[in-house]
Design a protein that fits this description.
With about 500 residues, the chain is mainly beta. It has five domains: about 40-180, Immunoglobulin-like (Sandwich); about 185-255; about 260-325, no CATH class; about 330-430, Sandwich (Immunoglobulin-like), CATH 2.60.40.10; about 430-488, Orthogonal Bundle (Type 1 dockerin domain). About 10% of the residues lie in helices and about 45% in strands. The protein is built from four helices and 35 strands. Strands 2, 4, 6, 7, 8, 10 and 12 form a seven-stranded mixed sheet that branches. Strands 5-9-3-1-11 form a five-stranded mixed sheet, with no helix packed on it. Strand 29 and strand 30 form a beta hairpin. It is rod-shaped, with a radius of gyration of 63 Å. The termini are far apart.
Length: about 500
Amino acid sequence: MVGSIILWEMVKIMNGEVKKRVSILPTVFVIILLLMVVAPLRVQADGPTLVQVSPASKTVSAGQTFTINVACTPGQSIKSFELKVSFNPTLLQANAVSEGTIFTGYTTFFNAGTINNTAGTIVDVYGLIVGAGGVTNPGSLVSFSFTARSASGTSTIGLSEVGVTNDTTYVPVTVTNGSVILREFTLGVTLDGSGSVAKNPNQATYAYGAVVQLTATANSGWTFSSWSGNLSGSTNPASITMNGNRSVTAHFTQNQYTLTVTVDGSGSVTKNPNQATYTYGQVVTLTAVPGTGWVFSSWTGDLSGSQNPKTITMNGNRAVTAHFLDAAPPQISGVTRTTSNPLDTDPLYGWVNVSCTVTDNVAVSQVILRIHAPGGSWNNVSMQAGTAGKFYYRSTTAFSSSGNYSYSIWARDMSNNAVTSSNVLFSMSPNWDLNSDGHCTIFDLVLVSNHYSQSGAHGWIREDADNNGEIQVLDLVFVSNHYGESWW
């Protein structure tokens, strides 16, 4: 009864003096205190009033400011409320407390309470209708403004010491707490080129402020070049701090390789495709083309064997040498024979010189004069090199026997290619066959007699058959001693 009288007097004072908050607040606090101490309200067993955090669960990002309401669904007509709130101060920062909408249309008295962001509490939050009246429609009792800190996790929004009254007493309440989830962030990695990126730690999501190391690994034939998006530069590995959803692109460039071809010998090599550089795994066909007089021999370096054409796979810088061999033998031309005049079998007075021209596409190594003597023997002699590819052999003895000779020239180049000229026939007349017709007849004696008693140097003419410098009866005797002989 005392409590009702005090409450009624408080209402009359408020109705007569103020429609909203006024300077009588200390008086009101004293009256409320007296109501609570001297005349506690009685709890009636009506249907419960529902008091709940709304929304029951809210997901936010670090740094986000948001509102949490305390909703009320009255089980009967209500006039006032009081409550405390708890939260995780490492995850949330309370900013402000504002009056809800449930008492809209009435003159109210509202206390926003005290925020303690160290303890994570908001205490002494209450509100009431000043004057007569109550509400039965749902609405919000109070709204709280929070800002999510730079962290991740879940904070309970806890309600405690919740009290709701009607005109005369506290009513039964059912309280439901809520939660705020500070969401984690995603790290998306895309690839430009061929390669992969490893994340350490490798997680689907990351807490605010987490540091993730990204390591780019290029596939064969590719090179990591740079990062873009929320990373930049070319440092690898690189770290990124997760203060939000992040997206990173790793760029890989395709390696370019060179194919160097050198030639040993005379020839060329074609490349298909013919490019300055090639990408990893590209196949290039090499075809060796010999120069005139040359043949392809083999590949060395990053290719081997003698297959032609041949392919090479570009999985790095490559160097190949094509070897060509000289296949052309020397060329023999201008085979010429000169002899002493007169031709004489006596080495003191007669000589034979054989000359020729030998050329080669590389170099001449050796030239041999192969002489087939009348008796059937062979005499191989080296020819002397002159100028401009000229070779010669001059001898007083090689053709000193009378009879039929044949000779050819054999030549070899530096690559051991050899060639032999055709045979040349050559007859060496004996001194007694003065007209070199192959027979000793009366005509040979006539030739001597035509110069009888003449003199000159030894071997000066063929009619000086014995080469003593005088044409006399001894020359006639020398010739007559072979009269009737043939040597051809």
